[in-house]
Queue: 3 jobs
Job 1
Amino acid sequence: VNYVANRGAATQVVDEIRECGRKAIAIQADVAQEVNVMRLFKQAEDELGAVTALVNNAGITGKITRVEDMSSEAMKSVLELNVLATMICSREAVRRMSTKRGGDGGGIVNVSSISPRI
């Protein structure tokens, strides 16, 4: 379970997963930074074994405002996390799960945000 700042919520999810008889750990990493994604996957593999699934759920909307009032920095932040981070995490999962690369296969789920409604 990846988290940026809310360790308590991540720990609660880990506990619920373990109550179901599954293995889980909480790993702090800001996936908007590629170096953190690499560390996240390495730690997960080291502690849990082969990656078999990825759920991309990180996302932001930024300050709710009209598009014409958004700064380019705000737009960049949204795109870096919602698009680029999702693609980097997916790339790293595919590198590990792909049967063509020696993996056992797996699945990726991308969770959308409320952005289409804004």
Job 2
Amino acid sequence: MAPEKYVNTDRLVQTFLDLVRIDSPSRQEQQISDHLKRILEGRGCSVVQDDLGNLVAELPGQGDETILLSAHMDTVGSDTGITP
């Protein structure tokens, strides 16, 4: 039997709303980078932040396989002051 999958939708939506509220135009991502670093560290990840604010987080798993997730933090072409 496959393990039950569970997504905390309340936490997912709240995290999304928190991120949307942080202005992060290109080359001005430090605030959102700091916020994401706190979240990742709070989840047990080891996090390295380079001089440009990029994050590399690692969370050891239980198997031999590696999973890579990649994303950008800036909001190219969007306005600032978004209120969801």
Job 3
Amino acid sequence: MNYATGIIYVLAGIILLLWGYKLYAKTIKLAGFLIGAVFGFVVFTLIGLTTVFSLIGALIFGVLGIFFARSVEIALFLSVGALLGAIVGMGAYPLLTQFPQALVIFVFAVVGAALSLLAKRPTMIAGTSLAGATLTVLGVSQLITNSDMWAKFKNGQLENQEFYLIVIVALALVGAIVQVSRRKK
């Protein structure tokens, strides 16, 4: 199961990392599915469900993303901002261990959601780049180690978590640069 989810992480991660905004702009339903799926996976994982149930959650939220992408665009941006904030919060938690992990992630998610409404395109680029980078890095690590890297990451149990965070941020910056450098068509 770890290899299958690792491959899914890597494929979805690369798509979001390099083409997240373009997919959103061109095919909002596909972006709604991908963003909804990632959001669903994160939510189901954070509440402590197994990988199988988290994948089911990803499918459920992905399908909901297809149906509601146009009509709830603000919710989509809030979700992306919250996801962006939650990922940053998960990575920053080892530096803020004096606070409960759930509180750190929640605060970062709320701040990310609020900031997302200020600038939609940059939020979508930042969110898809960071989500894509996170999925790609954890997916590659999962393929190499054959262990549930997402569970270790969300619980702050990765060896060298700071290194993972640096690699994720660096890859996200590359993805954001690639996405920003594309002209609007």
